[in-house]
């Protein structure tokens, strides 16, 4: 029996780094702060790799099934007999995979930032935030309790807020940070209500208990009678929890914060808004997968699948039209997360049925690598040409060779070209979708083509296309920045086929399941061909400056304009918040308080004053009047006295 | 002398010593000494309390003392504490201590200022240790009246109006309260031996249901007014915005807690059937307070108004939780009282510091303070995050207990109200981030470029408050251990 007690250090080391850099911010300067961050994350990364090795290979599956390990758990707040908020560490296939993803990307981003943030006055602060984020994210994926997930969910949210608003002098960054926090908090409200419902109707928040199949059966029968709008109360709870996940994972219609979040420094976009935090929603659904699958015949899971598929398509269409390279990548992220959600949605439970789940998790893993790579490469480009817009780029291949090659690898990977990482996971997703329904498969298939097209549109327009004259010749000037690119490119290249077995441990039942790609299947060829077709079209359009993009855009007319303006989602939200919440609720509330409620209180005071004004005339200070009142009084008293006595 | 009485005696002695001081330096050092002793005693009390409970003492109230002081009416000076009052005493000492640091540079009549402030505090301490309704009421009035002077003399803006409004509204509430107390008194026992002692009245459990139905709302509104119960909260925005910094801190941080505390100790404990009869109604008022306070805060431009409405919202949660009548919610109510005490005191301290530098409290007039006064601005961000219920700070644990407690009720009515109350977390985030975005971020203004950095005494006050906010947030189980026996005892009439 292996002791996993040391895993506590995986989240704790970044926490220590955060406390050091956060509290003693003044004593740390560049580059010391960076090395503290790198050191803590480096050790966490080694520990995670060691844990994965220990858990998957040394400790091994018992009868083909991986048992969860809980090396540490404490009651943090106790509500009732079984109902409590616990803090602890749960080691099982998903969480082990997640810590490997998080520490790998985070460690590389820590290294990269040493170059990217060079010379920034908030260098130590930046590393403090990165460490805070890493701590929260690691604790989130290791959670033993649904409420623990929520706690760290909020903390990753605030780290994201702090990092998006890192350049807090820039108004656009402030607005983006606020937007990200408020939109995700709005989603978290549903998440929290979902948790409360689970807490009440299931009686526990412990993840292991909730995922226990006989327990699920028990709570389903117990709560059968409680139905609202035709869905059982547990289904509602799961849908609400998914809304929380959709907020964090930028699913339609809660995605609006993600493109704006690109205001943050690029390493942050790579870490938080591409590889780790935004997949938290996927993780959440996967974490509670047995519940999602069994409760209400998987209705909530179907919702997940449909929302995922729609978001994948929606975002891919917008990505075709954007000009800012980080925004293209942001919509691409949204689209790929939609893909993962769709994979979960189409998944069954056992053996081959569970392919969608496996594929979703595997795609999460590979996507983290190549999307982080794309963002970090974008960071190098932006650093070199001082612009985010594609029109300021072109012909960069000869100036930024390392970036160009690594970007190409990542772009091929995301387009699903074998033998790169993305191919394997994408193929599995399409396969699972095909077995679920042809419509889902077709959406996935179509999105795959769009993805290849917009990715190579990006690649060709940045690195080839026109020859732009640059004021300063762009160059890759920091080893700290190119090294992570190369490492990630290597991972992207190999992770697909070297680690394919790795994905086979992460299954809904925690039983090992071997999946082989059927190279002869038309599905596989279809998915490769659509990728190649997308790349071909992009080559035709964008390798050299041509007229075609203009023509196609005008051919689509209004459709193009809608997509370019992101289907006016931002305007819709603005309308709701400004015109309805601010003008129709908040302002009247404030007015009502000042004028009606307070006016009433004031009028009580004023009435008192008014009455006293009137009656004070009686006290004139003239002795004669007092004497008259006195006499009248005496006479009246005497009359009363007589009346009663005689 | 027993330790509880010392909590009243030390402030009184400090006031006496203050009379002989000659200048600011002497006055503030005297006040500081007095409150360092007081704080040390408060910690000692917590420690003694824990030792006593550990030794197996399961009495409802510990360290009790009793002395008859008005035989005709059977009024006693009767004192005792449980975990809840112990923590309230600690909160009060710390906030007054922080308040003294914040008022380090009070220019105007420093001696009189500290005297009024500490007088007020002594009333609060007396209130928290009293077990006799009448004595409790006397201390309550001692706490309310110096407020008039403190706002009227050292305040800002329309201070006479604000002071008058605050005092009158609280006095009006006191009148209701007094009626309720007398009502309780005249039904307190079967044999004509009327008593004001809370424990005895509860033990007799003699108050007829019909009488409870009449007097419960009086007591609830009487205490609720100072606890910012909608629609009796309107003294709070005006009062807080005109009050000097330390007074706002003490008032919002501690005095407003007397409301929830009084409801819990007196109204609910002594009139359980009355409570059950009225909860459905008052729950609506509490939820309106929670949601409406948050929405009203979005529109405000004065920092103190924002914080005052935020207090209406957060203290609404205390009343909401108390009306839920279960252990989880009550634990949450107590934690929320503590938590809001520290957070709001921190807010008012910071607002005072910012106002002292920029001479404005209008958020639209300030920009980019993070660049100019980073320490204060960062503390403001922390206070804001704590206020919007970020895990790791006290607000989160309190709110989660409250929401969970509310949801654990069997009926749908309470569940729906809980969901409405939960929705306030979104609105809170909006008004907090609005201020952070407008005032702290962005490019700094030219005329604010040379504001003085934070002074050591300000830094001390900030550290004290933030330390406790995080301590509650990270180790809630430790605080709950102190709170729980009290909550369980006072919940007994409802089970």
Brief summary of the model shown:
The complex is a heterodimer of chains A (646) and B (495). Chain A is mainly alpha-helical and 646 residues long. Chain A is 70% helix and 3% strand.
Q: Which structural class best describes the helix and strand composition of chain B?
A: mainly alpha
Let me know the largest β-sheet of chain B: 2 strands, antiparallel
Radius of gyration of chain B: 21 Å
- What oligomeric assembly is this protein in? heterodimer
The level of helicity of chain A is over 70%
**Beta-strand residue fraction of chain B:** under 5%
* Total E-strand runs of chain A: 4
Instruction: Give the strand order of the largest sheet of chain A, numbering strands 1, 2, ... along the chain.
Output: 1-2
The overall number of domains of chain B is 1
Q: Provide the spatial order of strands within the biggest beta sheet of chain B.
A: 1-2
Strand count, sense and barrel status of the largest sheet of chain A are: 2 strands, antiparallel
* Inertia-based shape of chain A: globular
Order of helices and strands of chain B: HHEEHHHHHHHHHHHHHHHHHH
Classify the helix fraction of chain B into a percent range: over 70%
As a whole number of angstroms, the C-alpha radius of gyration of chain A is 31 Å
Please render the helix and strand layout as text.
The complex is a heterodimer of chains A (646) and B (495).
Chain A: H1 9-23, H2 32-59, E1 69-78, E2 84-91, H3 93-116, H4 123-141, H5 146-164, H6 171-202, H7 207-210, H8 213-222, E3 227-228, E4 231-232, H9 233-248, H10 257-260, H11 266-275, H12 280-287, H13 289-294, H14 299-319, H15 325-345, H16 355-385, H17 401-414, H18 421-436, H19 438-463, H20 479-498, H21 500-503, H22 522-542, H23 548-556, H24 558-564, H25 569-615, H26 623-645
Antiparallel strand pairs in A: 1-2, 3-4
Chain B: H1 3-19, H2 24-54, E1 62-70, E2 75-81, H3 83-102, H4 110-129, H5 133-154, H6 159-185, H7 198-204, H8 209-226, H9 235-242, H10 245-270, H11 272-299, H12 303-323, H13 327-358, H14 369-372, H15 374-387, H16 394-407, H17 412-422, H18 424-440, H19 456-474, H20 476-491
Antiparallel strand pairs in B: 1-2
Helix pairs in contact in B: 1-2, 1-4, 2-3, 2-4, 3-4, 3-10, 3-13, 3-19, 4-5, 4-10, 5-6, 5-10, 6-8, 6-9, 8-10, 8-11, 9-12, 10-12, 10-13, 11-12, 11-17, 11-18, 12-13, 12-16, 12-18, 13-15, 13-16, 13-19, 13-20, 15-18, 15-19, 16-19
């Amino acid at each position: 029996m292996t002791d996993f007690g040391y895993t506590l250090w995986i989240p704790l080391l970044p926490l220590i780094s955060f406390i050091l850099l956060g509290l003693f911010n003044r004593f740390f300067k560049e580059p010391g702060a960076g090395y503290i961050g790198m050191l803590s994350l480096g050790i966490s990364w080694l520990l995670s790799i060691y844990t994965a090795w220990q858990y998957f290979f040394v400790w091994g599956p018992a009868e083909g099934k991986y048992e969860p390990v809980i090396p540490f758990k404490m009651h943090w707040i106790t509500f009732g007999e079984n109902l409590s908020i616990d803090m602890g560490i749960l080691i099982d296939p998903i969480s082990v995979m997640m810590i490997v993803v998080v520490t790998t990307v985070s460690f590389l981003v820590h290294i990269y930032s040493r170059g990217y943030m060079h010379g920034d006055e908030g260098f130590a602060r930046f590393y403090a935030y990165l460490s805070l984020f890493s701590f929260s994210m690691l604790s989130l994926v290791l959670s033993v309790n649904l409420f623990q997930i929520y706690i760290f969910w909020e903390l990753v949210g605030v780290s994201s807020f702090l990092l998006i608003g890192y350049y807090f002098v820039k108004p656009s960054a402030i607005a983006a940070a606020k937007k990200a926090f408020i939109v995700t908090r709005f989603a978290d409200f549903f998440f929290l209500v979902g948790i409360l419902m689970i807490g009440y109707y299931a009686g526990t928040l412990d993840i292991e208990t909730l995922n226990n199949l006989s327990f699920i059966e028990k709570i389903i029968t117990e709560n059968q009678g409680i139905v609202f709008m035709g869905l059982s109360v547990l289904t509602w709870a799961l849908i609400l929890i998914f809304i929380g996940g959709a907020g964090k994972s930028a699913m339609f219609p809660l995605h609006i914060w993600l493109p704006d979040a690109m205001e943050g420094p690029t390493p942050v976009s790579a870490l938080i808004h591409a590889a780790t935090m935004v997949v938290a929603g996927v993780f959440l659904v996967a974490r509670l997968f047995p519940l999602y699958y069994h409760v209400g015949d998987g209705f909530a899971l179907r919702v997940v699948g449909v929302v995922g598929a729609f978001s994948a398509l929606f975002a891919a269409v917008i990505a075709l039209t954007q000009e800012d390279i980080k925004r293209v990548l942001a919509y691409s992220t949204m689209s790929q997360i939609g893909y993962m959600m769709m994979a979960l949605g189409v998944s069954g439970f056992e053996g081959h049925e569970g392919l969608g789940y496996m594929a979703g998790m595997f795609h999460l893993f590979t996507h983290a690598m190549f999307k982080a790579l794309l963002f970090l490469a974008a960071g190098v480009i932006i650093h070199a040409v001082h612009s985010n817009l594609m029109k300021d780029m072109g012909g960069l291949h000869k100036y930024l060779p390392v970036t160009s090659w690594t970007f190409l690898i990542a772009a091929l990977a995301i387009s699903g070209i074998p033998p790169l990482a993305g191919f394997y996971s994408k193929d599995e997703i399409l396969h699972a979708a095909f077995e679920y329904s042809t419509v889902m498969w077709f959406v996935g298939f179509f999105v795959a083509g769009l993805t290849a097209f917009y990715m190579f549109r990006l690649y060709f327009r940045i690195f080839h296309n026109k020859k732009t004259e640059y004021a300063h010749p762009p160059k890759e000037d920091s080893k700290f920045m190119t090294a992570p690119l190369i490492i990630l490119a290597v991972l992207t290249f190999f992770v697909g086929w070297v680690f394919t077995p790795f994905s086979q441990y992460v299954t809904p039942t925690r039983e090992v399941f071997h999946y082989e790609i059927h190279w002869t299947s038309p599905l596989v060829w279809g998915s490769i061909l659509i990728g190649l077709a997308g790349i071909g079209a992009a080559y035709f359009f964008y390798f050299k400056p041509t007229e075609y993009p203009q023509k196609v855009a005008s051919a689509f007319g209004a459709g193009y304009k809608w997509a370019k303006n992101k289907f006016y989602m931002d305007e819709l939200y603005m309308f709701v918040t400004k015109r309805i919440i601010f003008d129709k609720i908040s302002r009247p509330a404030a007015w009502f308080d000042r004028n009606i409620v307070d006016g009433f209180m004031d009028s009580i005071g004023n009435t008192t004053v008014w009455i006293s004004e009137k009656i004070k005339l009686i006290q004139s200070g003239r002795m004669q009047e007092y004497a008259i009142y006195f006499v009248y009084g005496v006479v009246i008293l005497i009359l009363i006295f007589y009346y009663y006595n005689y | 002398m027993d330790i509880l009485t010392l909590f009243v005696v030390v402030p009184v002695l400090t006031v006496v010593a203050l009379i002989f001081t000659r200048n600011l330096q002497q006055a503030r050092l005297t006040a500081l000494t007095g409150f360092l002793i007081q704080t040390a005693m408060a910690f000692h009390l917590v420690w003694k309390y824990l030792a006593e409970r550990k030794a197996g003492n399961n009495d409802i109230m510990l360290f009790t003392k009793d002395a008859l002081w008005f035989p005709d009416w059977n009024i006693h000076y009767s004192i005792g504490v449980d975990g809840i009052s112990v923590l309230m005493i600690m909160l009060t000492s710390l906030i007054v201590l922080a308040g003294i640091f914040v008022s380090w540079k009070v220019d105007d009549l420093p001696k009189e200022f500290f005297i009024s402030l500490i007088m007020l505090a002594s009333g609060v301490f007396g209130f928290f240790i009293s077990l006799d309704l009448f004595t409790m009421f006397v201390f309550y009035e001692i706490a309310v009246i110096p407020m008039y002077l403190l706002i009227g003399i050292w305040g800002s803006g329309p201070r006479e109006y604000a002071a008058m409004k605050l005092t009158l509204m609280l006095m009006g509430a006191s009148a209701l309260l007094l009626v309720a107390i007398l009502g309780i008194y005249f039904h307190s026992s079967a044999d004509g031996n009327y008593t004001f002692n809370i424990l005895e009245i509860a033990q007799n459990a003699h108050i007829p249901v019909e009488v409870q139905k009449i007097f419960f709302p009086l007591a609830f509104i009487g205490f609720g007014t100072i606890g910012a119960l909608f629609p009796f909260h309107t003294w709070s925005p005006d009062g807080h915005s005109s009050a000097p910094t330390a007074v706002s801190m003490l008032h919002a941080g501690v005095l407003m807690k007397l409301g929830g505390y009084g409801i819990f100790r007196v109204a609910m404990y002594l009139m359980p059937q009355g409570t059950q009869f009225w909860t459905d109604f008052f729950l609506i008022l509490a939820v309106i307070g929670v949601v409406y306070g948050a929405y009203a805060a979005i529109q405000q431009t004065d920092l103190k108004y924002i914080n005052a409405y935020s207090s209406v919202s957060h203290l609404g949660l205390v009343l909401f939780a108390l009306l839920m009548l279960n252990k989880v919610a009550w634990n949450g109510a107590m934690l929320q009282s503590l938590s809001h005490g520290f957070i709001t005191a921190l807010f008012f301290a910071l607002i005072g510091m910012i106002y002292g530098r920029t001479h404005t409290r209008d958020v639209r007039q300030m920009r980019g303070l993070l660049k100019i006064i980073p320490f204060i601005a960062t503390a403001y961000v922390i206070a804001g995050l704590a206020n919007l219920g970020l895990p790791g700070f006290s607000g989160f644990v309190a709110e989660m207990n409250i929401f969970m407690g509310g949801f654990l009720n069997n009926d749908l009515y309470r569940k729906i109200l809980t969901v409405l109350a939960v929705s306030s977390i979104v609105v809170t985030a909006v008004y907090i981030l609005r201020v952070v975005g407008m005032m702290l971020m962005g490019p700094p203004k030219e005329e604010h470029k040379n504001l003085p950095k934070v002074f050591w005494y300000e830094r001390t006050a900030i550290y004290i408050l933030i330390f406790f906010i995080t301590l509650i947030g990270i180790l809630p189980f430790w605080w709950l251990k102190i709170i729980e026996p009290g909550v369980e005892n006072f919940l007994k009439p409802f089970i």
